Amino acid sequence: MSRTPAREALQKLESGGYIERISMKGNRVCGLSARELAHCFAIRKAVETLAVQYSATRIAAPELAALKNTLDRIEEANATLDGDQLLERLFPLVKRFNEIVFGACGSAKLLEQVWAQREIFDRYRVMRIVLPEHLERSVMHRNNS
After folding, report:
1. End-to-end CA distance of the chain
2. Taking the CA atoms of the chain, what radius of gyration do you get in angstroms?
3. Helix (H) or strand (E) holding 76
4. Is this model's pTM higher than 0.85 or not?
């Protein structure tokens, strides 16, 4: 690999706030404080809310069918699995659900921001714990809609 792509990659990481240059020493990986992480979560919430609002008015029949299929698979997993098996089955299904919903927003720039914000949380391994009663309420809410 030549130096140019490596230099460009480092510049991109620096401009994104992931690393900082230290004179005469090299680069250091940056961290986020709890406060900064909370601000990032607020930004993520706003961007995702906007994407979902756009998707609600633009989603097409094939995407709705894919969402229904994904929700059916979530219900099936919830009814037949528990513990780690349930979580292993749910994570890819929830990811697929999000891809469909956010993808339907119709804005490449907005979609880019959604995934960029999600990447911040992936980087810090920030995740929400799926509580069994929360999952059950979500599934019940879908059935009552």
Report:
1. 55
2. 19
3. helix 61-80
4. no
CA-CA distances (angstroms) from residue 40 to 15, 17, 37?
16, 13, 5
Contact 54, 107 (CB under 8 A): yes
Whole-number pLDDT of residue 49: 97
pLDDT digits (tens, 9 = 90+) for 64-115: 999 999 999 999 999 999 988 998 999 899 999 999 999 999 999 999 999 9
Structure tokens at 122: 């992936």
pLDDT given at position 94? 92
Is it the case that residue 140 has pLDDT exceeding 60?
no
Amino acid at the residue 91: F
22's enclosing H/E stretch is strand 19-22
Q: Is 34 exposed, middle or buried (0-12, 13-18, 19+ CB in 10 A)?
A: exposed
Tell me the C-alpha distance between 16 and 56, whole Å: 31
